[in-house]
Design a protein that fits this description.
- It is a single chain.
- This protein has 2 helices and 5 strands; from the N terminus they run H-H-E-E-E-E-E.
- The protein is of the alpha+beta class.
- The protein has one domain: Roll (Structural Genomics Hypothetical 15.5 Kd Protein In mrcA-pckA Intergenic Region, Chain A).
- Strand 1 and strand 2 form a beta hairpin.
- The termini are far apart.
């Protein structure tokens, strides 16, 4: 599954267009490497979101087979490894 679609389905980023832009701007890494929106996400990949106001690392546990995921089922798909907010000045 494409990275931008995965980010949207797992509610890490609200809209796919925003996920696409974040990837193009270099805010999203997969396994420590800058990732394009079309990069394929695989099980056990570590996705890092280093956005303006927060930093989040998640591990991919399962690739969604549907086009919608309930928020209460997110722990089946991703595991949050690290999360912190950062002050914007």
């Amino acid at each position: 599954m494409r990275l931008d679609k995965f980010l949207k389905l797992t509610h890490l980023i609200k809209r796919r267009t925003v996920a696409h832009e974040a990837c193009r701007e270099g805010f999203i890494l997969i396994n420590g490497k800058v990732a394009k929106p079309s990069t394929m996400v695989r099980v056990n990949d570590v996705i890092t979101l280093n956005m303006y106001n927060y930093y989040k690392e998640v591990q991919v546990l399962l690739i969604p087979s549907t086009n919608q995921i309930n928020k209460q089922d997110l722990d089946k798909y991703i595991k949050i490894l690290n999360y912190r907010t950062e002050k914007v000045t």
